[in-house]
Queue: 4 jobs
Job 1
Amino acid sequence: EQLDATGLHVLPGAIDVHVHFREPGYTHKEDFGTGTAAAAFGGVTTVFDMPNVIPATGTAEALAAKHRLASEKAYVDYGLYGLLGEDTIAHVPDLVAGGVIGFKLYMGNTFGNIPSPTTGGMLEAFEVVAPTGKRVSLHAETASIMARREARLRAAGRKDPLAHLAARPAVVAVEAVARAAILSEWTGCRIHVLHISSAEELRPLAEAKARGVDITGETCPQYLLLGAEDYGRIGPVIRVNPPVREARNQAPLWAALASGVVDMIATDHAPHIPDEKVRDDIFTVDCGFPGVETQMPLMLTEVAAGRMSISDYVRWSAVNPAKCWGLYPRKGHLQPGADADIAIVDLARRWTIDDAKLQSRAKITPWHGRGVTGLPVHTLVRGRFVMKDRALVESARGTGRSVHTIQEMPAPRVANPDSTMTEIVRIPAASRGDAATGA
Ligand code: DOR
Ligand code: ZN
Ligand code: ZN
């Protein structure tokens, strides 16, 4: 099949390591068909799907059922996260055997009401996952801080969108990232910090990296492009966990991408239908909004504006996610796109985001009406069209596959010789012991 791509650019398809496609349990919001169709329209060729569904993806049976659903409907490739909580620690070996891309651990409450482990439970969970080499992705917000603040704000009668931000100040995330980094260092468990939203979180992240902790991080378009002053304009639709923060956080997040402290851009694609997004009580509004379809246009707009180069974008949207999860078609090939997962984009196309036209079942985002420059025109997965000329290739339904990772044990961590912090006392490996096996 021939394609005239004159005037278009060929990019590696984006790898979005953070999506909620809601299946099973919440298919009125999304399913693997609509979610991966949205990905195809967004130039996203691989997604990692989160476990906060019904039943949560914390048992071998739930995982097998989800693999079946995804394989029947997916237009693009996918990885499935297993849920890591105090009551799923015993299931880790079965989940690894059943094919997970990694684990998700909720340090704080958000949509789905997954219970957060105690610090003791989290340490145990990391001890059990560490030898598998899988990475644990963290919803890094401390539950106990948020519960107290929300109770106080409720008592004070606050109902406005900014009350949501007040209940989750940046310290909520800073404390969680710092604590998770210590437990990762202690156990050797690889971790990934999801949805980094604040300048303040960057410090514990950078310090952990400098100590040689295998920790990676992502931020999302909403934290790079929106700010607290957008709450009034956008209304409760903007509610997301963690919250969009004061605009002063944007520049440090961009700088952290540039310096490598933050490794990648993901979306936290979290669809909810309009009824669930607009309610009188801001604390009961469902948090999150779709993102896979708008991420690439939003970011290409920033490329057009000169905020990053196109190779920066490719590094943050495809190369680094592939590296952090060991995703590559054959050992030795770390090039995303090497198995022809490709987005063919028109970098000059100006258009306006219209929620009503989204593929996602949840047609409500904070991006409605925003002008963007850049549009995926064709998307190919493993060399086959899944979206062509802005139309879905219907026959591609069910051709998406679970992605493979090459398993490697975590490398022994050595202090970064370039670090200015080598004087900091590091946890001596010998003292860590091997509590997971009782040694
Ligand atoms: O805003 C969010 N929505 N944050 C989360 O952590 C969960 C997600 C969801 O599943 O809706
Ligand atoms: Zn989260
Ligand atoms: Zn999420």
Job 2
Amino acid sequence: MDKSKVDYSLYLVTDSTPAILGSKDIVAVVEAALKGGVTCVQYREKHADTGEMVATAKRLHAVTQKYNVPLLINDRIDIALSVGCEGVHIGQDDLDLATARKLLGDDKIIGVTACNVEEVEAASTGGADYLGIGTVFATQTKENTKSIIGVSGLQYLLGYLRTSKSKVKTVCIGGINASNASRVMWQSSSLDRSLDGIAVVSAIVAASSPEGASRELLKLVKTPPVFA
Ligand code: TZP
Ligand code: MG
């Protein structure tokens, strides 16, 4: 897959905790979400052992490949390498970006979580392909979110990237759902340097119809609001 052509518009991050996934199968949820138009998938799993993760990642990769959508693995470069998927997403407490790049090579996608100017600068100049900017709004999905930056924080960081003429792609994450997706996406686009997409967990994984939820979110991301 040519990573320069990846579409980050609607980026699904998985979660298999019962409170979010319920009794559904994560691979079935991802396939439904892909049918609904998800453009990028991250397999995020904090509880399974390595063997289980590799098995699930292989099943997920078979599905994402059918839709020509990249599969990225949260934290675990070893699993991305063993599955041969398109890349990884790393946080500030994971393996550092330079080492990850050495291990994965230039063709793979590396995304980095960033919540302040220092982190945005280090990741964007250090060769990240995209930034996951957040946490935007309070969320039940992630424990220990470092800081809630709000839409104003998001705009500030996008403004910084614009000033520094960075070409890094950007998605925002944290509490994004159908009621705020348009505001986040299109307020940010009032700046020249706009977001490339939104990243969501519960708005799709916990939805009664992951396919319908994905279709609705994609529409909000793609359709500029009409101001009266
Ligand atoms: N990183 C920052 S917030 C978050 C992650 C993985 C979880 C977002 O979950 P949700 O359900 O979309 O708020
Ligand atoms: Mg991490």
Job 3
Amino acid sequence: MVEEIRIRAAQQELNKLKQKVHEHEWRLQYHVAPIANWMNDPNGFCYFKGEYHLFYQHHPYVPKWDTMYWGHVKSKDLVNWEHLPPALAPGETYDKDGCFSGSAIEKDGKLYLMYTGNVWTGENYDEDLKQVQALAVSEDAVRFEKLEENPVISEAPKGEDIHPFHFRDPKVWKHEENYYCVLGSKTHDNIGQVLLYRSKDLLNWEFINIIAKGEGNFGYMWECPDLFELNDKDILIMSPQGVKPEGNLYQNLHQAGYVVGELDYVKGNLSYGEFELLDYGFDYYAPQTMLDNKDRRIVIAWMDMWESKMPTQEHGYSGAMTLPRVLELKNNKLITSPVKEIEQLRTNEVSYEQLKLINEMSLTDVEGDCIELDVTFKMKQPATFGVRLRVDDSLGEETVFTYYGQKGILEFDRNESGKGPGGVRKTKIMLEENKLHLRIFIDKSSIEVFINEGEQVMTGRIYPSINSNKISFFSDEEIEISELKKWELK
Ligand code: FRU
């Protein structure tokens, strides 16, 4: 009886919190975010029986990282998401301290989740841990049962330079007759690497090889690997921890990027080229991809960064996903665009053409905190120009994108963005025909900018005041805004 009262009281508290979060000024309107409490990595992103499912690292009771569950949302269109009960909760001997990241795969009409069971074996979270790989299964993709055979991979391979404990984040896929999975790992001396496994039945796994390993400045651990085929190439995505800044690159605590190569499935050798980032902003980590029924390779990532200030935590929630983005391969580089379905949110279109821009300009109907802005700048000669977003001049708040025409650098400055973390990120963008095209998605506390048809993306969380909604354009030389469109997103 006492226990029942306690559970009911906790449920009432959670309902109150959900309402508060729902109404909160920084709560995102068209991105996946938890209804309350904590979210990190996307997990188990898949298309199953006509619906997209997205799971995520979740704590349902506190707005901070702790013993991890898998949260769960589903959608028919990647835009409208329905929240479902957590799919996995920690509790078995092999996952009692967390159901860590993993992926999903359909087999015989059932949905399998493959995840890392985490157990702390001492006080030191970096060293005292035991990680294993486990499976859960569901017929309806709502209620999942952990398999009796768990763990299906109970220890890291021995006899190779593979750290025995840091061994996690299985991404599983099928190739010809076999299932494969990649796992994030590191060497005994803290060099990040990715392991490849093979299985006939998802239950018995055979280690094949270390398919990629960091050399030089490439981090001390690679988390959340993902391997998939695109245009006859094999793309390996990973999230290296601890890469040191190099000029404008690697300014975030951790990185997320990819290499393009060719995988020999028998030997487990991946020949690959240069590491490239998937996003050049502040908040992008642990991306995971899926192939949908339209043959699109879609990626979604955690739109935050470890150890970065998250001002929503004191309001009972934290963490969000990026927009789902389609990946295409052109000249061996990934091109990223928001899924087309997002356009169904567009209302109240405002459109301008051939505007002359010199000094500063704003337009009364171009503003907002939940909008898409599509703008093409055209320079005649090298100029320094850009756009100020989420502006309130009386408060001195603004988030600024500046293109330095002489240097060919685009800068994202959030030093005056409001209550969140500050900083500047810069990336080199070479212009064709002196044109810079920015497709900007603003949600209540986020900005995603797709540059020149998705050649690069810059993503960041910002926490402005509720009335910081103005937008202005600026340039030190006369340039043209050849096209400008704005939609509210509802
Ligand atoms: C990446 C990560 C994963 C791990 C999970 C735990 O952000 O550290 O390696 O499985 O988060 O929540």
Job 4
Amino acid sequence: MSSYDVIVIGSGPGGYVAAIRCAQLGLKTACVEGRETLGGTCLNVGCIPSKALLHATHMLHEAEHNFEEMGLKAKAPTVDWKQMLTYKDKTIETNTKGIEFLFKKNKIDWLKGWGSVPEAGKVKVGDEVHEAKNIIIASGSEPAGLPGVEVDEKTVVTSTGALELGKIPKKMVVIGAGVIGLELGSVYARLGTEITVVEYLDAITPGMDPEVQKTFQRMLKKQGLNFVMGAAVQKTEVAKGKAKVSYKLRKDDSEHEIEADTVLVATGRKPVIKGMGLDDLGIKMTERGQIAVNEHWETSVKGVYAIGDVIEGPMLAHKAEDEGMAAAEVISGKHGHVNYGVIPGVIYTHPEVASVGETEATLKDAGREYKVGKFSFMGNARAKAVFAGDGFVKLIADKETDRILGCHIIGPGAGDLIHEVCVAMEFGASAQDLAMTCHAHPTYSEAVREAALACGDGPIHM
Ligand code: FAD
């Protein structure tokens, strides 16, 4: 038996970051991970592999659609799917090994196996019980199922199966028009798969700015994705390696079927809590089955903390990381802090979509007066030069004080551009502060400044 100041359960972006911060703050730390490799969902079957495939297929798209226009006359590349998967696996490996290196560097013990908490202050891994003054649960999430849909990870797959299909399917049905479904749908659409996205709601990417939703759906349609909206999937059936998806249209209850080689179920994720003995420990849960925590990320059991996808809030790697750092700081007697009002959300399609803070809808609901500064990438020289003029930046500021309340971007580099607004929001900046900041030319970020100008006297290039 070993004794630690902190044992973290789970080595995803929440867990590994918490472990590193604990160690940096002088706490004797171990991290339990049941997977073969560190890094959790994000590095193994989430953010990183999906971005590798998005990158590779975006290169293909550029070659097929834009090279000729730029005077690049080589034949468009053919796809070696096996090699593309190898590239994706190597990307995973360098990243997961990187965490192993960081654990060694920070003298964090990796306790290999599945952990449980038999009592406060104790963590069991295999047959061994370790003592821990503090425990951080960072067990993450897993794909949520859908009644009537049986996943076999071959024909009917979750995102995990979709990242390693044996071959590129001819036809794919994606159930759910959320971030994961649209990113992976884009990957396969670029590889020539006929994609049909079946979504229960009437708009894609729930919660996003409606103008962004509409523009994004239009762009995805142009890229070949088909959409069936307002459709409730009833069941999937698999025979001889082919799938049939049955759905009902909500507007008239009419019943329909689509056939596909592969069905991707991307209807959300649920917290991983099984097997850790949390019930017996008396840990309180939320109504939605997440671990309930207070403002210091402590559960109802003293000395047991929880962070990341297993607690409330957006299921995002950077939200988990921030909570990991904050919980470590609280444990070491410092003041951990996460500003939940400034957590960006990014969709890594082409173009990218990014948002932070309030939307017009949330402000209307709150009865708050606001103004909108909007700027199209058609007025941005750099974007036009790289065939990326479609899209816009929409900055929302308080009508009276001009303080920035939110930003929604669809366009080139949106996932990076959003951070300028995040920093501005953290500092309580006004739209005018952004508008008065010199932005290098020609950059996409000029569009953010122009949107800020549009909140005041007006943009220059529109
Ligand atoms: P996880 O990353 O889920 O890690 C939890 C770890 O705990 C796992 O490795 C698990 O094996 C381990 N574990 C669980 N129980 C135990 C136990 N009892 N004992 C030992 N180990 C245990 N987010 C973004 O911000 N950007 C993206 O681009 C993005 N892309 C995504 C793409 C896909 C396809 C998917 C599925 C997700 C994506 N996400 C993305 C979401 C992101 O992966 C998660 O929000 C993030 O991984 C959550 O981190 P976490 O530390 O809470 O948990």
